[in-house]
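Batch manifest, entry 17 of 40.
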Amino acid sequence: MAANRYYGKILDIDLTTQSYEVKEFPEDWVYKYIGGKGIGARILYDELKPNTDPLSPENILIFIPGPLSGTIAPTAGRWAIVTKSPHTGLYLDSQVGGHFVPKMRKTGYDIFVIRGKAEKPVYLYIDDEKVEFHDASFLWGKGIFETEDTLKSMYPGSEVGSIGPAGENLVTFALIGFNKYRHAGRGGAGAVMGSKNLKAVVVRGTKRLEYYDPKGLRELTRELNKIIAMHPVMKKRRDIGTPMWVRMANEGGFLPTRNYSRGVFEYAEEISGERMRETIWVRNKACYACTIACGKLTHVREGEFKCTEVEGPEYETLALMGSNTEVRDLNAVAYANKLCDDLGLDTISMGNVTGFAMEAYERGLIKDSDVDGLELRFGNYHAMIELIKRVAYREGAVGELFSHGVKPAAEKIGQGAEKFAIHVKGLELPGVEPRASWGMALAFATADRGGCHQRCWTPTAELNGILPRFSTEGVPKFVKETQDERAACFSLVLCDFAPFDVSHFAKLLYYATGVSLSDEEYLKAGERIWNLARMFNVREGFSRKDDTLPGRIMEEPAPVGPAKGLKITQEILDKMLDEYYELRGWDKDGIPTDEKLKELGLEW
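Output type: C-alpha cells
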C-alpha cells in the first residue's frame, strides 16, 4: 500500500455496458477530505450535473469506506454510501456498519462507483481483480433476507449488500441491507440501486490490508478498547443498546408521540430498552472490530408475533413505530421492524409516514377509499403492518400515496396537512421532538441530508447541563463544531458511538495511512467536507428558506412535559440561524462566502 492513501484505486462500474475500469484518485484528497463522506462528496460534486434526476441512469452510487474502515481500529466496521437522494434531492451519505466493509477493502479497491442502468436485473460479484455481472432475475421480488442467504450460499465466505421489494419499486425511502439487519437506511439509496436494476453487490476479497505503522496502530487500538470497556455510557450501550434512550427521552419530554404532537408517551415503559431486556432480548451483537456490541438480537416468545427474530428494535424504531404511532405492543414493533428490514424500508421514515397517515385519517382528511379501507387509527398496529407491505410494493391507492414520504403525501392531501407533516427538506425527522431540544431543532434545520440526528446530537449536552435547555445560548457554536467533527469522523469512517477525542482519531489515521494531520487540520478537514456538501445542495437550489422546521413545531406549543407551552418560533430559529451562519462564514442566505471557500481550498 502506498503511504498517504489507501490502495488509491476506484473501481468504476458501468451497468449499462456491463464494463468497468480502474481509476486512481489524487493523493492529496486524503489530506483534504480524508475518505468516506468527504471523498464521496467530492466525487459526487465533480461527477453529477446540477438537477440530475436521482432515479435516472446519470445518478451515481458510491460505495466508499474510509481509511480506517475494515482495519483493526475500534468500531472500524463502518463505511459510507454516497449518492444524490431521490427522497430529498439533496446530497446523501448513508453510514452503515456490519461486516461488509472488511471484505470490500480486501478486494484491493478503495471505492466502487456504480453508474448507468442494467437492461435487466443484475447482481455484481467482486473478488479481488474479478468483476462479474450476473443475471439477478431469479432474485428480483425477493426480500433482503432470502437474497442474502441465497447469494452467500452461492459464494461462501462472501458478504452481500442488497435491496428488497421497496428498492425495486423505487420507494424513495428504500434502504440497502447488509448482514440482514444493518442498513444504509436514510434518504433512499435503495431506490437508486433499484433504479439501476442492481439487486445486490457481492464481495469476497482476499488481499491483506497493510498499515503505515502496524505496531502503533495495535497499541493505540488496545488503549482505546480499554477506554470503551471503562466508559459508563458504553457499558449501558452494551447492556441495553440505543433503546436506553426511550426512558430518558420520555422523561426529557422529547419522545415523539402521536405524530410529534407531544413528547411524552404514557406507555413508554412498555416499549423501553429495559422492558426489551426483560422480555425479548437474546444476546448482544457487534459490528466488525467493535467491543461496544450495542446490537440486540431479540426473539418474541409469545403472542401473535411469536418466533419473530430481529436485531433490534433500535431506539429510533421504538420511537417512530412505537410512541409516534401510539403502538405500545413491543412485540408488534419488533415484527414491524423485521418486516421493514426484509422489504427494505427505512424504519424512521416509515414510522413517521405511519404517524402522519394516522393523523390525517383521524382528522378525516383522507377517506377510506384513499387508503383502501385500512383503519389507520393511532395504536392500530395491524394497520401499521399492512401499510408497510402496501408501501413497499406501492400497492393500491394507499401504497402509492405514501411511497414518497410525508412531504409529497401532504402536498397531495392538502387541507392543511402540510402543518403536521414532520420533515426537514423532505427527510422525516428521527426520534427527537425538537420543541424539547432546541439544539436538535437547529441540527435538524441545517443538516446536509435533511432532518437527521447523526450530524449532531445535543440531548446529552442538554440533559447534562452542558447546554442550557430551552435557550439559544451556545447552541449555534455547539452544533457547528459538532457537525464539523462528525463530518471528519464519518470520513475516517468510525462509529458514531466511539467515545474518543479528536487526537485519537488523528493518531489512528496516521498509524493506518501515514497521513499526518494535527487536531486543527483534522477538524478543518471536517469543516471543508461540511461546506462541500452544502455547496452541492446550494447548486441544487437549497438555501436559508429550506433551513426550517415543520409547521407543528413552530406554531403549536408543546402540550405536556418539560417543554409544555413552548414552540420554536420563527424568531427563535432566525436567531440561531443568523449566529450559525456567521460562525460558518456563510452569508445571510446560508451560502458559503467566497472568502470561506478560499480559506478551505474550495474556491473551485
